[in-house]
Q: What sequence folds into this?
């Protein structure tokens, strides 16, 4: 027992000695031709011999500590290495960098055995895998990179899933010469099933863009200009027009069309910089200040007012239309209010010179109302069907009124049967087509009476000749 106590005291003395040495060398630095500091991780074993490190073991840690209060020492930062794979003669390990914040000591950066670096990401899958924003004051080479004074016009066919910025000579890109020779070009190469695209800026002529040409995998389509405020300039409520020189131009300025969201005015707009204040009636959605010419059909769904001349091939107005001047259809207007060259069509009733359309029963059947006489070299009346004509008089079952009945009717009614009376004509007017049919009916009835009378006359004549023969014979006796 005494021997064991001596051994224990001896061990404690040795430990105190080395502890005093460490305290004296706490501020010492490794120096020399090959200064090194080792941290050697091994595990104990039952036999007293060291055992190998295992996967997941911390191989060593550098700590920076500080006294925060009496009896309180905290780690401010650490660097530690953790084994990720251990086998006989084989080892791989990570390197973790940790710092302390109000939330405690936290891993901030890791370097994997494959050389992947994670900042805020402890399981990086890229060479640099960052969670959060990044910033660099110099060139950045990688998925986004910047190139200086590259004057070629090559396709970005060596880059995939990248964006990169280069300084270019604009004439090498096929852009016109400018007061500023160089410019910046941003190339976007998404890769996969996509087209590359470029954006160029740097001259005093705005922004330009182009895409990969569909006709060739390694060629560019033509540049297209992105319009800016220098190209688009106008006054409020004015519709723009392309300015010369042409034939292709991208500059937009005021035209002669005013649109305030409710009313549209064409023409009569004062030149810039005067405020566009055209004269129009607020209830008119469209106003044309000056002459208007329509070479084809014109359809107006609401009211239309024309204060000047109108020449058109076809004018269709769904609602009201007011024309203060002469209208020429198919020709220039003459002294007539309406001058038409070619055929005309009216789908409704037409009134000429009459104060109103007739309102008697059946008047709506008539399509033309004329308040005055009609002069024509020929009038052709065509019945809708032949069954309405008076030839039914000659049918076998037609009953012709005997003349005594006609005589009695005329004495009482003072007009022929089936013929309108003078009062009816005065009240309802005279239908020429109907009257022609009635007259033909009466003429055909007269012919039937005449034919019957002729038969009777022939019979009487024959009887008279027979009587005359008998009288002659009697006289001879």
A:
């Amino acid at each position: 027992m005494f021997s064991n106590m001596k051994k224990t005291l001896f061990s404690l003395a040795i430990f105190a000695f080395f502890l005093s040495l460490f305290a004296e060398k706490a501020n010492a630095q490794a120096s020399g031709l090959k200064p090194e500091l080792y941290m050697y991780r091994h595990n104990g074993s039952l036999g007293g011999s060291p055992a190998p490190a295992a996967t997941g073991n911390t191989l060593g840690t550098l700590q920076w500590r500080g006294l925060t209060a009496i009896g309180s020492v905290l780690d401010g930062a650490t660097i530690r290495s953790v084994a990720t794979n251990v086998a006989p003669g084989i080892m791989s390990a990570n390197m973790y960098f940790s710092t302390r914040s109000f939330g405690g000591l936290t891993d901030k950066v890791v370097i994997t055995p494959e050389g992947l670096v994670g900042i805020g990401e402890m399981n990086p899958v890229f060479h640099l895998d960052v969670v959060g924003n990044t910033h660099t004051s110099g060139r950045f080479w990688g998925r986004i990179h910047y190139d200086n004074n590259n004057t070629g016009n090559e396709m970005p066919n060596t880059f995939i899933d990248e964006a990169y910025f280069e300084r270019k000579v604009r004439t090498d890109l096929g852009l016109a010469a400018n007061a500023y020779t160089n410019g910046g070009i941003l190339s976007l190469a998404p890769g996969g099933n996509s087209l590359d695209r470029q954006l160029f800026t740097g001259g005093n002529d705005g922004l330009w863009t182009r895409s990969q040409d569909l006709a060739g995998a390694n060629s560019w389509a033509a540049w297209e200009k992105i319009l800016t405020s220098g190209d688009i300039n106008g006054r409020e409520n004015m519709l723009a027009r392309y300015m010369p020189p042409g034939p292709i131009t991208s500059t937009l300025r005021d035209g002669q069309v005013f649109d305030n969201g409710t009313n549209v005015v064409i023409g009569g707009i004062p030149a810039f910089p005067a405020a566009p204040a055209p004269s129009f009636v607020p209830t008119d959605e469209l106003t044309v200040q000056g002459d208007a010419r329509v070479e084809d059909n014109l359809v107006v769904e609401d009211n239309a007012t024309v204060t000047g001349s109108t020449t058109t091939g076809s004018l269709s107005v769904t609602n009201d239309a007011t024309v203060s001047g002469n209208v020429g259809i198919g020709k220039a207007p003459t002294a007539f209010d309406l001058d038409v060259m070619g055929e005309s069509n009216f789908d409704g009733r037409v009134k000429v010179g009459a104060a109103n359309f007739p309102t008697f029963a059946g008047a709506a059947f008539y399509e033309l109302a004329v308040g005055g006489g009609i002069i024509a070299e020929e009038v052709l009346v065509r019945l809708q069907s032949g069954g309405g004509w008076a030839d039914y008089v000659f049918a076998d079952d037609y009953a012709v009124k005997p003349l005594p009945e006609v005589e009695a009717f005329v004495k009482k009614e003072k007009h022929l049967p089936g013929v309108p009376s003078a009062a009816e004509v005065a009240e309802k007017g005279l239908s020429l087509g109907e009257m022609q049919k009635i007259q033909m009916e009466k003429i055909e009835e007269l012919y039937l009476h005449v034919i019957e009378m002729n038969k009777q006359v022939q019979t009487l004549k024959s009887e008279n000749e027979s009587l005359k023969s008998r009288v002659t014979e009697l006289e001879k006796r």
Notes: Residues 291-345 form one domain. The helical segments are 2-24, 403-413, 422-428, 432-476. The first helix runs from residue 2 to 24. The mean pLDDT is 82.
